[in-house]
Every structure is written in C-alpha cells, then in structure tokens.
C-alpha cells in the first residue's frame, strides 16, 4: 500500500513537471548533468568500457569528450521524456521532421505491411509519439514491458497517446497473425540484449561480437513485410529528423541473416556518425559467444 502511494505521488509529480516549458526543463537537465556525471557518476565505468571497446582507435581524450556529451544528452532525454506526458500533437510534429513517408504510405496502400527498425538512439520515445501521426493504417510499437507497475502504466499511456498500439514483444507474432489481412507498420527497437538462453546469433557490431534478436528477420520473412530503417539525426536541442530508409521489399528472397546484418550495420553507421546520442549506459555486451568445440 505504501509503495503504491509513493508511486502515485511520483507519477503525479512527473505530470506536474511535464507542464513546465521545455526551456525550464532544460535548466533542470543542466543541473542533472552535474549531479549524474560528477557527483553520482552514474554507470560511468559501464559507459567508459562500452566506448573504449567500440572505438579502440580513439584517444582517451576523445572518448572522454563523447562520454561527457552523452551524459549531457542523457539528461536532456530524461526531461524531454517527462515533457512527452503532456506535449501536444502540434508540438510533437514540430520537433520531428520526417522524410520518405510517401514510401511508407505507398507500401501500405499496396496492401503490404512494414517492419520499421530503430534503436535506442536520439529520443526514441518522441519518435514513438510521432509515429502515431504519420498514417491512418494500424501502427504498432513493439516493446518490452517494465516490471514496475506504475512506470509501465505511465509509459504505456504516453506511447499510445496519438493512436499507436503497444504490443509486448512476446505477443507480436500472435498479433501480426491476427492482422495478416490488414497492412500494418510495426516498430522494433533492435539493440536490446537478448537473455543468454535466446542468444542464438552473434554479429559484429561496434567492433565486438554482439548477440542480436533474430525476431525482426523471422517476422519479415514470415509475412514478407517490407523492412525499413529509421535513420535519426539530432538537429539541435529538442529537435530531430527521421528518414525512413528502405532495406528489403521482398524479405522472402533474402539469405539467412542478411536482414539482421543489414539493419545492425545501419544502426552502427548511425551511431558512428554522432555517438553521443546512443544509450551507452546500457549493459549491451553482457556475454560473449561460446567458444567453438575443438
């Protein structure tokens, strides 16, 4: 009972914060940066190790610069996400420029479904809200449920505010089977770490063997859905662009792992372009592939 009351109080406080202008919230972000980076040192060892392994060619000074930029952006991401609880549709539209949406509409109008691949890059939560505005066809956001009940409730309401349907990762196959006669666009965050028991395939990503989900490829080939990549750029503080890059229009004709390796490569190139906007504090490389038996 006490935990639920505290959770409700936190949620209420976050909603009050979200009513503040972003300009004010960015001042809070500047303070959070000092606390997070210098005072608490939140996961600094994790970030340092991830950056060093991903960019062995960079000097320590270059890696430190990326790290500081990352923490500054992480704090911006926190306050921007809070703002999304009450941000208007018009404001969301203004803050994310979309390119090549005509291709999406043409594909959906032809009766084909789309699988859109992105990563934890830029403000993916803002991108999820923007998705709800781009078409009248069924929009699905595939997500991993949060164990905390209060947080799960808040994020579910926020992500579905403008018409997108949230589907847990474990339920997406059943959902797409039910909608097989209806063109849909489903968005997957591709850079989550599978549990060890589900790490059946490793590919080279950011200079190291990386376990990746094969679900995107399996679903694309099963339903012959067009695969696109969401290429995100941070234009300036609080403003983004997203270009939908077609990858495969006939997935059934691809070789095994071709879809997986291709969307992972596109994510890698996007990260290399401006690395500070990826989620470096995530423990992405929890385990390595098992050595082959001699």
Describe the overall structure.
The structure is a single chain. The protein has 294 residues and is of the alpha/beta class. The chain has one domain: 3-Layer(aba) Sandwich (Glycerol-3-phosphate (1)-acyltransferase). Strands 1-9-8-2-5-3-4 form a seven-stranded mixed beta sheet, with helices on both faces. Strand 6 and strand 7 form a beta hairpin. The longest helix is centred in the first third of the chain and has 24 residues. It starts with a helix and ends in a 21-residue tail after the last helix. This is Lysophospholipid acyltransferase family protein.
Task: Give a nutshell description of this structure.
The protein has 294 residues and is of the alpha/beta class.
